[in-house]
Write a structure and sequence with these properties.
Aminotransferase_I/II_large, kynurenine-oxoglutarate transaminase activity, aminotransferase, alpha/beta, 40% helix, lyase, single chain, Aspartate Aminotransferase, domain 1, EC 2.6.1.64, 438 residues, 2 domains, binds 4'-deoxy-4'-aminopyridoxal-5'-phosphate, Aspartate Aminotransferase, domain 2
């Protein structure tokens, strides 16, 4: 009753901090802010990375069949570490790609998107005091997840080499300095996070760069968390090389993938890890103590999608082949639009992101020199509010200490319908015209 509530002693009210210490410094999230801004102001949203075109028919049909078919058990829990048909087909596909026999039960684990796969890795491998090397620019959650596990992120930036005269910048111009990379490894290093193709730059690491990383991992007995969610999105005939296929790397690498990116269904949140049992057994421990089961019907449909792709592997009808062809075209449209208005694009070799230099548009958006806020952050906010075009500031993909070295760029997502990209082009053209006439 209210009477007994009122008579509770004062100290029943909690006055100490309620949050655990591991949440310190990881409470801010760029996506929460920019997704909200885009929802409020954008007419054209090239911000967050998701396609606005439909998922392939074969996959939607597979989902519908699973949903309303006779097997009503597809509405119940499936195997905790992965729906059997999905882990089976993933083991077949990755076995073929890596040239080794994979056991679906021990070498593959399904997760709630690649995001949970990453979380499992950091929780499973990182102890207090461990260092984890992160290559900048990086998908921002790596840093927070390392910190939440008690580890210390150690950052190494890709360094921009000036492109040859008259040539557009390319994501391949962003390179690791070998000596600088070597200097980051020590006895405290537990793991390195590799993301190739890289979000946000679209860089596809070359064999030479991967060998450099692999040699250091072997030399210092370091694990590699290899985020390959954009593995099928590579352009201009480039090859995506899996670091796990290099000498000495299988035993120390976890490959992470995502059906969201592979089949254009980011909302399904089906991801996976592939690797040796000696590593995956610990991911299973985290998984069984956090999420445990992933959605069955989505896994069933993704399994069928992969069965189709395995059959059509390398053939022109394969979705992997078609999607990258279509995206390359979209990339080229966006490159042209940006070039035409003087927002210099860095042509990506992979992913569905493109980073562009905003220097020529700076005069429209006043800088506030004394502010802590990186300039590109201010610019991206101004752009969505005043021009209705949403993009993500590049500094969001850098550690605090390095944000201000890279604050002249914004990232666009080009996995969009032709109409969306045209609408973006119109906004840019109009903006450019207003600039020249003022
Ligand atoms: N890794 C990278 C590099 C990503 O860009 C994303 C999604 N933006 C993820 C992981 C997370 O993927 P998922 O949506 O499957 O959780």
């Amino acid at each position: 009753t209210s009477k007994s509530f009122l008579s509770l002693p004062l100290q029943a009210k909690m006055s100490r901090p309620v949050q655990a210490r591991r949440l310190e410094g990881v409470d801010k999230n760029i996506w929460v802010e920019f997704v909200k801004l885009a929802a409020t102001y954008s007419k054209v949203n090239l911000g967050q990375g998701f396609p606005d075109f439909p998922a392939p028919d074969f996959l939607r049909e597979a989902f519908t069949r699973a949903l309303s078919g006779e097997n009503h058990m597809l509405h119940q829990y499936t195997r905790a570490f992965g729906h059997p048909p999905l882990v089976k087909v993933l083991a077949q596909l990755f076995g073929k790609l890596l040239g080794r026999d994979l056991d679906p039960m021990t070498n593959v684990m399904v997760t709630v998107g690649a995001y949970q796969a990453l979380f499992c890795c950091f929780q499973a491998f990182v102890d207090e005091g461990d260092e984890v090397i992160i290559i900048e620019p990086f998908f921002d959650c790596y840093e927070s997840m390392v910190k939440m596990a008690g580890g210390t992120p150690v950052f190494i930036p890709l360094r921009l080499k000036a492109p040859k005269d008259g040539k557009l910048m390319s994501s391949a111009d962003w390179q690791l300095d070998p000596a600088e990379l070597a200097s980051k490894f020590s006895e405290r290093t537990k793991a390195i996070v590799l993301n190739s193709p890289n979000n946000p730059l679209g860089k596809v690491f070359s064999r030479g760069e991967l060998e450099l990383i692999a040699d250091l991992c072997v030399k210092h007995d370091v694990l590699c968390i290899s985020d390959e969610v954009y593995e099928w999105l590579v352009y201009d005939g480039k090859e995506h090389i899996r670091i796990a296929s290099l000498q000495g790397m299988w035993d120390r690498t976890v490959i992470i993938g995502s059906a969201g990116k592979t089949f254009s269904v980011t909302g399904w949140k089906v991801g996976w890890t592939v690797g040796p049992d000696r590593l995956l057994q610990h991911l299973r421990t985290v998984h069984q103590n956090s999420v445990y089961h992933c959605a069955t019907i989505a896994q069933e449909a993704v399994a069928q999608g992969f069965q189709r792709e395995l059959m059509l592997y390398g053939k022109p009808d394969s979705y992997f082949v078609q999607l990258s062809k279509e995206l390359q075209q979209k990339r080229d449209w966006l490159v042209q639009s940006l070039e035409a208005v003087g927002m210099k694009p860095i042509v990506p070799e992979g992913t569905y992101f493109l980073v562009a230099d905003i220097s020529e548009f700076k005069s429209d958006v006043p800088d506030v020199p004394s502010s802590d806020e990186p300039y590109d952050n201010r610019f991206a906010k101004w752009m969505v509010k005043n021009k209705g075009l949403a993009a993500i500031p590049l500094s969001a993909f850098y550690s605090k200490a390095h944000k201000n070295n890279y604050n002249n760029f914004i990232r666009f997502c080009f996995a969009k319908e032709e109409a969306t990209l045209k609408a973006a082009n119109e906004i840019l053209q109009k903006w450019k015209k207003e600039k020249t006439s003022s």
